[in-house]
Write a structure and sequence with these properties.
- There is one protein chain.
- By secondary structure, the chain is of the alpha/beta class.
- The chain has two domains: about 120 residues, Chitobiase, domain 2, CATH 3.30.379; about 130 residues, Transcription Regulator spoIIAA, CATH 3.30.750.
- Helix content is about 40%, strand content about 20%.
- The protein has eight helices and nine strands.
- The strands form two sheets. A six-stranded mixed β-sheet has the order 2-1-3-5-4-6, covered by helices on one side. A three-stranded parallel β-sheet has the order 7-8-9.
- β4 and β5 form a beta hairpin.
- The protein is elongated, with a radius of gyration of 26 Å.
Length: about 280
């Protein structure tokens, strides 16, 4: 048995290096939207980690004698549409719908076609997952998939289980003290990656009345219920979050229970009302 160990290790090394240095081209169109670029990056990383030498090009035709992966969205990539017309890929009715995709491989050419940009993203991630599992680029197969549910995603409660001091129900301003995780970009990166891995396309932030923490009105500056520096940080984080979510095909939905005036707005209004009444008296 001890004599067999070196032989087994040698065989494993040969297998693991079988694809080392093999060249492969990822062929895309120009003007890629962020979520398609994100999918291509994930696929390129999976190929590189497996030992392939990857190049990414924009081309109007391919050489079928060379290993290549053609990626594009239906009716947005001329090369994809031309390959469909040339019968390289035949589509069944309804096979590619919203967020759907088809993976097909024939000899040296692999094709990823999305019904929309999210579908193209999911197709890239599906192929990247298969490469990681198999240790190489699978060939000569066909696979189609699309989500069954239109909206898929978790809800994060931007609220507490108790009232905040001096406030009533639904009043939970966006501040680092109340919601420290909201300002943690590393957390959001990991969480959004988890969501797209499971093909989630929505993320709900649930708060009773978030507007006075996120919106500033020129005519009512006193309606803002957080300090100026916190407001600016909220805007920065929200922009970052929506931008990173869009790369992954995720829609940020700000949910709320009600629309009412903020605490500082109410206090100023009451103060002005009382002052006016005293003047009348």
């Amino acid at each position: 048995m001890k004599k067999l160990i070196p032989v087994i290790l040698s065989l494993l090394m040969i297998v693991s290096s079988a694809y080392c240095g093999e060249k492969i081209s990822i062929v895309t169109s120009t003007d890629l939207v962020p979520r398609v670029q994100f999918g291509i990056d994930k696929l390129s990383s999976a190929l590189s980690n497996t030992g392939y030498e990857v190049t990414i090009t924009q081309a109007s035709q391919i050489n079928r004698d060379e290993s290549s992966i053609v990626i594009g969205t239906l009716r947005k990539n001329p090369l994809i549409d031309a390959m469909i017309l040339a019968d390289f890929l035949s589509l069944k009715n309804g096979e590619i719908g919203a967020e759907g995709f088809v993976l097909t491989s024939e000899n040296n050419v692999t094709l990823i076609v999305g019904g929309d940009d999210s579908g193209t993203l999911y197709g890239c991630m599906e192929l990247a997952s298969r490469i990681k599992k198999e240790g190489s680029l699978p060939k000569n197969y066909r696979f189609a998939d699309k989500p069954l549910m239109v909206l898929r995603g978790p809800c994060i409660g931007m609220q507490k289980t108790q009232f905040l001091p001096g406030r009533r129900v639904y009043e939970y301003p966006y501040t680092p003290e109340n919601f420290p995780f909201f300002y943690d970009k590393e957390f959001w990166q990991e969480y959004l990656d988890l969501l797209v891995e499971h093909r989630m396309n929505t993320l709900y932030l649930w708060n009773g009345h978030p507007f006075a923490s996120l919106v500033k009105l020129d005519d009512y500056p006193y309606a803002l219920e957080v300090p100026e520096d916190v407001y600016e940080k909220n805007v920065e984080v929200y922009e970052y979050l929506t931008r990173e979510a869009d790369k992954r095909g995720i829609w940020i939905i700000q949910m709320f229970y009600n629309i009412f005036v903020s605490k500082p707005f109410a206090e100023k209004t009451i103060s002005e009302h009382n002052t006016e009444n005293r003047h009348r008296l």
